[in-house]
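User: Sequence recovery, please. Input:
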């Protein structure tokens, strides 16, 4: 966002405004790394199209003059049905990195998910006075994988979120064209020294450290090893959702990795209703990929999600204003959600889940009652 000399730029009114502020301060290659998707970015764009085609059916005469956004996510109280999604390399967008995001999440009253590829140690992130989830990639170094699980338990993490849709990185053409590599100041410190990948391409680094042979039997071992709530992130098929529940998963994240893995994969929002129908109330069902407003959160709730993981907008807030920028982005999202819920006649999160939706013509999804 630009402004005339001597004229203070207005406060952002939408998360798109936050992104524009971030774009103005980031190098083009770093902006592309965060914003981009894989392949021709078909799925990246389809995520947004799905939200735009999902129309809420508001209820009237609810008798409520406010909307209560509070809820619980994986047993953790939250001020709204939102958690910060796991994302790598925070320090490449702002020197304060993950600790600033963790503190902002604590201030906002939402859980923060630390990535395996975080640039700061887990014990530092656990001191943010908020609720911590750990996202886990299945590493070739099994001893390091087990150490991360044990460390999460020791530090009081509230859930373990295993990403299951990255046997290797999708072909992210923006990064390839830009020659983007893992920056030294944002290197993943929770990996062994030799695995931090400084100077490698992101795809090359992932191939070196992530084990593509992760299977259901490995997840069974994790389930036996840890007492933490176990969540699988990257599920799009109802059959996989059912198998995860049968294995003992406590939660699922319906996700196509923000359009960064299989280009052409179904938009997460379109996959959500069938997965919720398959698992019913057997586990929590969260959603990510494409959430850009409080109305998007409400749409996800109406389609059966317990809540959402918010990704790129958090990094845009961090880039444009550090901890204060993330706090502002989360507060903006909460304001939008409160207004959308009130206008839809949903006085609380449970009522939001009972709203109907109608899909725009041409959307390959059945209408919800």
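Assistant: Recovered sequence (369 residues):
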């Amino acid at each position: 966002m630009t402004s005339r000399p001597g004229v203070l730029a207005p406060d952002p009114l939408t998360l798109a405004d936050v992104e524009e502020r971030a774009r103005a301060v980031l190098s083009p290659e770093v902006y592309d790394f965060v914003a981009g998707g894989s392949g021709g970015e078909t799925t990246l764009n389809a995520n947004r199209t799905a939200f735009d085609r999902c129309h809420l059916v508001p209820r009237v005469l609810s008798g409520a003059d406010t909307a209560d956004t509070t809820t619980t996510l994986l047993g953790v109280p939250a001020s709204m049905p939102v958690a910060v999604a796991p994302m790598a390399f925070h320090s490449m967008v702002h020197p304060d990195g993950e600790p600033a995001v963790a503190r902002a999440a604590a201030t906002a009253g939402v859980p923060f998910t630390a990535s395996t590829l975080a640039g700061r140690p887990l014990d530092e992130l656990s001191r943010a006075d908020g609720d911590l989830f750990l996202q886990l990639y299945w590493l070739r170094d099994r001893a390091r994988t087990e150490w991360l699980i044990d460390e999460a338990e020791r530090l009081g993490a509230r859930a373990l979120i295993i990403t299951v849709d990255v046997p290797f990185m999708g072909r992210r053409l923006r990064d390839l064209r830009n020659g983007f590599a893992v920056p030294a100041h944002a290197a993943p410190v929770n990996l062994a020294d030799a695995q931090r990948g400084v100077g490698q391409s992101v795809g090359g680094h992932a191939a070196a450290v992530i084990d593509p042979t992760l299977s259901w039997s490995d997840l069974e071992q994790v389930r036996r090893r840890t007492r933490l709530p176990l969540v699988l992130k990257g599920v799009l098929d109802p059959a996989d959702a059912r198998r995860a529940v049968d294995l003992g998963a406590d939660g699922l994240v319906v996700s196509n990795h923000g359009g960064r893995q299989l280009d052409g994969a179904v938009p997460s929002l379109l996959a959500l209703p069938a997965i919720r129908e398959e698992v019913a109330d057997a586990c929590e069902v969260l959603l990510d990929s494409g959430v850009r407003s409080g109305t998007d959160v409400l749409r996800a709730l109406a389609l059966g999600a317990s809540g959402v993981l918010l990704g790129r907008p958090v990094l845009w807030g961090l880039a444009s204003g550090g901890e204060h920028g993330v706090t502002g982005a989360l507060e903006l999202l909460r304001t939008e959600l409160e207004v959308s819920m009130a206008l839809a006649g949903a006085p609380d999160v449970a009522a939001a889940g009972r709203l109907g939706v109608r899909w725009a013509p041409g959307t390959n999804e059945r209408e919800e009652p």
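The chain has 14 helices and twelve strands.
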